[in-house]
Write a structure and sequence with these properties.
The complex is a heterodimer. Helices cover about 40% and strands about 20% of the residues of chain A. In chain A, strands 1, 2, 3, 4, 5, 6, 7, 8, 9, 10 and 11 form an eleven-stranded mixed beta sheet that branches. Chain A folds into two domains: about 160 residues, D-Maltodextrin-Binding Protein, domain 2, CATH 3.40.190.10; about 150 residues, Periplasmic binding protein-like II (D-Maltodextrin-Binding Protein, domain 2). In chain A, helix 2 links the parallel strand 1 and strand 2. By secondary structure, chain B is mainly alpha-helical. Chain B has 13 helices and two strands. The chains are: A alpha/beta, B mainly alpha.
């Protein structure tokens, strides 16, 4: 028996060496949320380039930045995260400039999503998907014709609205109704928005970030303010739902891909960026992801059933959008206070 | 005597050491870290600066935040009272069952614990949601015509709290009822006490320690079970736990989150201390 175990151990050691001693394959370490790419696209990339993909996941932007700080901009080759956190990462010097000569598809990007606050000259990032917070409602249950945020205050919607739990988005909704900016640093304007928001409390049935679409589909709520990916899922399940671009204008959130300053394999990262900017690959990615397609050339390839909510409407007016940017700590605390008060008024 | 000596020898110390070290590193260490954090100023993005301040504690006195403390206490009190009532009745009758049945009951109580509490809470969503199990049953027997809006309400949160906490109450009441000397009840009955009077003067007094342990075991966690308010209350019941989580994860105001935690712990300590004082007085009265 002992001999047998010894033999097995020897085999194991040998096998371990064979795996380890073999010529090391080129790898690309992507660091992003779970489920950002369809597996077929990743596999096809490996097949085409021979570069193995190592997919590391984080659950919040903050975790990503903390890890990247700890690694001093190393460890990861490509990171995809939200706009505001990219701004912080760039300011901390954790991002390297893109070598655009290596990205031949760079012109496929939809200019609407470029030159944004986090990267005003497009030196560091390539957008990968955008989200807006739209209103979705079930016309069979709602009697008002919802055109914008202000209609959510209607009394007929008592106890029937679900909203996401992002306080900047929800306070921003009230700010927009009052005709103010999402990013105002004026405390009085935020307090006024808070007072306005408190009047919405009786209509609120549910506040949550995850899977809000389920409650809309099950009939628990009849109208909702939710993220693009949730809208996509809700619409696919129930095409009768109505999606509204609020007349007050909308806030965009953009996810961007960047290469950390000390990425071990920046070359592979460039190749990957170029690969996903290809119209066909891009369309496959966005149909899977359910966010707004940021690749202009992919728009026409997106299947009709998705087109409504993955591409911008023809009459889209970029001047009416405003991105939610970082505000000072003091203002961010005020936002939270306003939102906490609002939440405790909902019952 | 011999036993005490054994407790003092070297081998014993070595067995206890890991627990000591564990407590030191993972309980006391983080506690000290948290207290220090609560006196520092936050940085613009997140993290902290090395500036000393009382500001974090002062902000707690904002009426909006004070309200969350009141809300937490209210929910904890409501849940504890309900759990004490139902748990006591259950534990009492369980202890009076035949041994075989008792074992069965114990199994039935323990089995749900093998599943993660979050998953069990999602089970309640299926029961409560519009056209869910409860609605279908009530509609089938004709009690209601339209789905009740049960999910995301205060009662739903209370039910979730009771569900999560009641086993602790049942087990501690059960163990004290089981240990009780029933001859004392018989004696009381022989001396002419009605069943109700015998229960109140003998059984209840003797099982009080179990009930009191159960209350502490229920009340302490009920202040912190923020995810129940999240999942079953649709985020509308804002407890201190929710506030702390939000300060950490969304506002990135770590020092304020730490200050909130310190205050929460202080409140709990004072309440448990006061509670023990009162409970001891009760026990003395019972003996007289």
């Amino acid at each position: 028996m002992k001999k047998f175990i010894a033999l097995m151990l020897a085999v194991l050691v040998l096998a371990g060496c064979m795996a380890g001693c073999a010529k090391k394959k080129e790898t690309l370490t992507i660091y992003t949320w779970e489920g950002m790419f369809p597996q077929e696209v990743l596999d096809a990339f490996t097949k085409e380039t021979g570069i193995e993909i190592n997919y590391a996941v984080f659950d919040t932007d903050e975790t990503m930045l903390a890890k990247l700080e700890a690694a001093k901009g190393g460890d990861y080759d490509l990171v995809i995260a939200d706009d505001y956190i990219i701004e912080m990462a760039i300011n901390e010097g954790l991002v390297q400039k893109l070598d655009k000569s290596k990205i031949k598809n760079i012109d496929s990007i939809n200019p609407v999503y470029q030159k944004q606050f986090y990267d005003p000259t497009d030196e560091y990032t390539v957008p990968y998907g955008a989200g807006v917070q739209t209103i979705v409602y079930d016309p069979s249950k709602v009697t008002v014709d919802i055109k914008g945020y202000a209609d959510l205050w209607d009394e007929s919607l008592k106890d029937s609205i679900g909203i996401i739990a992002n306080y900047r988005v929800i306070n921003g909704m009230a700010l927009k109704v009052l005709g103010k900016s999402y990013n105002t640093e004026n405390a009085e304007e935020i307090e006024a928005a808070g007072a306005k928001l408190n009047e919405l409390a009786p209509n609120i049935r549910l506040i949550k970030d995850d899977n809000l679409q389920d409650d809309l589909l099950s009939g628990e709520i009849s109208a909702a303010v939710m993220y693009t990916s949730q809208v996509t899922m809700a619409k696919l399940e129930n095409p009768d739902l109505k999606v509204v671009y609020p007349v007050e204008g909308i806030g965009f959130g953009i996810m961007g891909a960047f290469i950390p300053s000390k990425a071990p394999n920046a070359d592979a990262a460039h190749k990957f960026i170029d690969y996903i900017l290809d119209a066909k690959n891009s369309a496959a990615c966005f149909e899977y992801l359910g966010y707004y397609c940021t690749t202009k050339t992919a728009d026409e390839l997106i299947a009709d059933e998705y087109k409504d909510f993955l591409t911008l409407p023809a009459d889209f007016d970029a001047s009416k959008t405003e991105m939610i940017e970082n505000v000072s700590a003091e203002i961010s605390e005020l936002h939270d206070k306003v939102f906490t008060e609002f939440k405790s008024l909902c019952e | 005597m011999k036993k005490k000596k054994a407790a003092g020898n070297g081998a014993f110390k070595w067995f206890v050491m890991p627990i000591y070290l564990f407590t030191l590193f993972f309980v006391i260490g983080p506690l000290i870290y948290m207290v220090i954090l609560s006196f520092l100023e936050r940085e613009e993005t997140w993290g902290v600066t090395n500036t000393f301040t009382f500001g974090n504690y002062l902000s707690i006195f904002d009426p909006i935040y004070l309200k969350t403390f009141a809300e937490s206490l209210r929910l904890a009190l409501i849940s504890t009272v309900l759990v004490a009532f139902f748990g006591y009745v259950f534990g009492y009758f369980m202890a009076k069952l035949k041994p075989r049945m008792r074992k069965m009951m114990m199994m039935l109580l323990m089995i749900p614990f093998w599943t993660n509490s979050l998953i069990r809470l999602y089970g309640w969503i299926i029961i409560f949601r519009a056209n869910g199990t409860l609605d279908s049953v009530l509609m089938a027997i004709g009690l209601i015509k339209e789905p009740l809006k049960l999910l995301y309400t205060y009662p739903a949160v209370v039910v979730g709290m009771i569900y999560a906490l009641i086993p602790f109450m049942i087990l501690s009441v059960y163990s004290s009822v089981e240990k009780m000397d029933w001859h004392l009840v018989e004696a009381a009955r022989d001396l002419g006490a009605t069943p109700a009077k015998a229960f109140w003067t003998v059984t209840f007094r003797l099982t009080l320690p179990g009930l009191l342990t159960g209350i502490i075991l229920t009340f302490v966690p009920s202040m912190g079970l923020f995810f129940i308010a999240d999942i079953l209350g649709g985020n509308k019941v804002v407890l201190v736990g929710n506030l702390i989580q939000e300060q950490l994860m969304k506002v990135h105001n770590w020092p304020f989150a730490a200050a909130l935690s310190v205050v929460l712990m202080l409140i709990m300590t004072v309440m448990i201390w006061a509670y023990r004082k009162i409970a001891k007085a009760d026990e003395l009265e019972a003996r007289l």
